[in-house]
Write a structure and sequence with these properties.
Radius of gyration of chain A: 22 Å
Number of helices of chain B: 14
Order of helices and strands of chain B: EHHHHHHHHHHHHEHH
Distance between the termini of chain A: 69 Å
Largest sheet of chain B: 2 strands, antiparallel
Shape of chain A: elongated
Strand content of chain A: 15-25%
Distance between the termini of chain B: 61 Å
Number of strands of chain B: 2
Number of strands of chain A: 13
Radius of gyration of chain B: 23 Å
Largest interface: A-B, 50 and 49 residues
Strand order of the largest sheet of chain A: 11-1-13-12
Order of helices and strands of chain A: HHEHEEEEEHEEHEEHHEHEE
Structural class of chain A: alpha+beta
Number of helices of chain A: 8
Strand order of the largest sheet of chain B: 1-2
Oligomer: heterodimer
Strand content of chain B: under 5%
Helix content of chain A: 25-40%
């Protein structure tokens, strides 16, 4: 090969490479959501403040168009009752979409249990939502890349690309994912991404009458939520799975499952 | 209503979104790929290591493996919520996912089996093509046959000794390359489960190895069983025909059959021992280390799923056939019973892994019970129900029947 030919070929080759790289950049959905200032969405749940009214669940289902009467939800509230004998009872009747309307504990299979007040040592509510993990197992296992993490940390699902294999549902240690009853693809909480990217609060945060749910930017030192997370004693749910969850809890008791 | 509510019943504290998402079709998936891998390994024992006694069954297993292979992706397709999007896995494979390489692995393996099949049958294809070509008045079926045979030869009509020797060498190489790929195909199915860290029952590095061993067991057993059934049919036909030079006699078939079955049974026993040891090792290890999840696992293994695991899988599916095969003087009838039990045992093992792994909640404080939909009332309950699974189970036999027309497994006159 002559030197001239070689140079010509090298030039053409690099031009082709640049074009391909540019094409890949354009089609990488995560790149489009990157914002200019440092941003990492995190969530803070203050379990002491939750009263189990279920407004958050109701607001979420309506906002995100999860058919209200179906038994799946992007968020839910759990109730824990610890008796004097050391027994732990927990339930989340209908994801608490109507709140906790009875003191009887739902045991499933149509059964429930009444625990006399004097037998109770402690009882509390714990709201749950997607942890938008830093190392999300759901993103890792999606065979087609239909679920992905944005630059600001939120894990999203592409409804047009999900094949509905359910591997992500199996991979989530928190049971956050389910098949959308209408669209029949994987579905999960995304901190109401359509709202937070327009300077609005997630539906559950807005609906909570007690301020138990808050959202913030961990990369902004002035952010009130970031300040609490960095200065107070908070914990995350099931850290042993190595997923680096980004929903922080105040008062997450040892009994919480 | 959520689809999964049809077959899931929850007990005690279970997260709201938890259901048995991977149902009977996902039980069928590792079961079918297992049979594929097992059948191939059996055929390779002859082609690769030249284990002569397995000659007769080797050819048969290869064709059967190919029939099974064509069915293996079907359960996954049936299971997808969006089956029409299945090819996205090949279009945008996301390689951090264990499922993403499925298309690649299946294609590579399929190519190997198809090539080996071609080399094995090239002589037969060429001969048939030439035979029909030289006939004068061809009927329509003969014309079609001629086109099929000629197309399948791919234009390679050379039947010289040198060419046939090359064929034989190619078969050996492909059989050699096929064994690790077959093991990979199935070990990989095991990895899909074993790597799910959220599932306490599935997550073990032993899973791929356990899957490979049980795959070989089930594949060998199914090949033996189908072989016996076909030989019985041939015996029946032979008993009604007068002895001739073309058709083997009843005694000839009987002799070959029992010989092949007894030889193959030895290999089956060997793999069965491996398979059971690994599964028991896993169980013992879990009990001994007793990590956080052990409480709920113990209640599932020794309580809720006791019948499925210890009675149906280990006793009926492993122990009894093990004894049946071990007693000297194996007869065809005893072999049939043992083989049916072995296949059932492997199916139960898949069931206990897939369904058992979802029968307890991520909360470790609740259970889910699976009720297989039997009478379908729409397409979803058909494909995720008993009849969908049976459909998948029957398909390979139908395909084998079709394939056997082009790639005859039994020559008209043979002997060992």
């Amino acid at each position: 090969m002559k030197r001239r030919d070689f140079l010509r070929l090298a030039l053409k080759g690099s031009a082709a490479l640049v074009l391909v790289k540019g094409g890949v950049e354009i089609f990488r959905p995560a790149a489009g959501h990157a914002s200019l200032k440092p941003l990492r969405w995190v969530f803070l749940v203050d379990t002491y403040k939750c009263i189990g009214c279920g407004f958050c669940v109701k607001a979420c289902k309506l906002e995100n168009e999860i058919p209200f009467d179906t038994n799946v939800s992007r968020t839910w509230v759990e109730r824990y009752v610890v008796t004097k004998d050391g027994d732990v009872f927990a339930d989340t009747p209908k994801e608490a979409r109507y709140g906790f309307t009875t003191t009887r504990i739902d045991l499933g299979m149509g059964k429930d249990k009444n625990i006399p007040l004097q037998n109770i040592d402690k009882a509390f509510f714990v709201p749950k939502l997607c942890n938008q993990c830093e190392k999300s197992p759901c993103v890792q296992v999606c065979p087609v890349g239909a679920t992905y993490q944005t630059a600001d940390g939120v894990v999203l699902v592409d409804r047009e690309w999900c094949i509905g294999c359910g591997y992500c549902i199996m991979a989530c240690p928190y049971g956050m994912r389910f098949f959308h009853p209408v669209h029949h693809v994987a579905e999960k909480c995304n901190f109401c991404y359509h709202r937070i990217t327009k300077d609005m609060k997630p539906a559950c945060v807005q609906a909570c009458p007690m301020g138990a749910r808050r959202i913030g930017n961990i990369k902004d030192p002035q952010d009130p939520v970031a300040k609490i997370i960095s200065t107070q004693r908070v914990s995350v749910h099931k850290p042993e799975y190595g997923t680096k969850p980004q929903v922080y809890f105040i008062g997450l008791s040892e009994e919480v499952r | 209503m959520v689809l999964e509510e049809i077959w899931t019943v929850k007990e005690l504290f279970v997260y709201p979104n938890e259901y048995i998402y991977w149902s009977v079709q996902i039980v069928m998936y590792p079961f079918m790929t297992g049979l594929v891998a097992g059948a191939f390994v059996l055929s390779s024992l002859y082609h690769l290591f030249g284990i002569k006694p397995l000659k007769e069954i080797a050819k048969f297993s290869l064709v059967f493996s190919f029939a099974l292979l064509l069915v293996a992706p079907l359960p996954l397709l049936f299971h997808l919520m969006k089956p029409e999007r299945n090819f996205y896995v090949v279009m945008t494979p996301h390689f951090t996912s264990a499922i993403a390489a499925f298309g690649v692995v299946l294609f590579v393996y399929g190519s190997i089996v198809a090539s080996e099949l071609w080399f094995l049958y090239r002589e037969h294809l060429v001969k048939n093509s030439l035979k029909i070509k030289n006939q004068l008045n061809k009927s329509l079926t003969e014309k079609i046959k001629y086109w099929v045979y000629t197309a399948l030869t791919l234009g390679a009509f050379d039947l010289s000794d040198n060419a046939l020797r090359k064929d034989a060498r190619a078969i050996k190489i492909l059989a050699g390359a096929g064994v690790p790929v077959a093991c990979f195909l199935h070990g990989y199915a095991g990895f899909i489960f074993g790597s799910v860290k959220a599932n306490a029952l599935w997550m073990t590095p032993l899973m791929p190895v356990i899957f490979i061993m049980s795959a070989v067991v089930s594949g060998v057993a199914l090949c033996m069983l189908t072989y016996i059934i076909i030989m019985e049919i041939r015996k029946f036909i032979a008993s009604r025909k007068r002895a001739s030079f073309v058709y083997p006699t009843l005694e000839e078939i009987k002799g070959v059959e029992i010989y092949e079955v007894q030889m193959t049974a030895k290999y089956l026993l060997f793999f069965l021992i491996f398979s059971i040891s690994l599964e028991l090792l896993d169980l013992v290890f879990r009990g001994y280390t007793a990590v956080k999840s052990w409480d709920i696992l113990r209640s599932v293994i020794y309580g809720k799923d006791f019948t499925n695991i210890f009675i149906l899988q280990y006793t009926l599916g492993n122990l009894i056939p093990f004894i049946l095969l071990l007693i000297p003087g194996l007869t065809i009838r005893r072999a049939i019973l043992a083989l049916l039990l072995v296949i059932f045992g492997v199916f139960m093992m898949r069931w206990n892994v897939v369904i058992g792994g979802q029968s307890f909640s991520l909360t470790f404080s609740g259970y889910m019970h699976y009720h297989l939909p039997i009478i379908p009332h729409d397409f979803e309950t058909f494909k995720e129900g008993l009849f969908g699974a049976l459909f998948i189970g029957v398909m390979p036999f139908f395909l084998f029947w079709v394939l056997n027309k082009i790639f005859p497994v039994f020559e008209l006159k043979e002997s060992h």
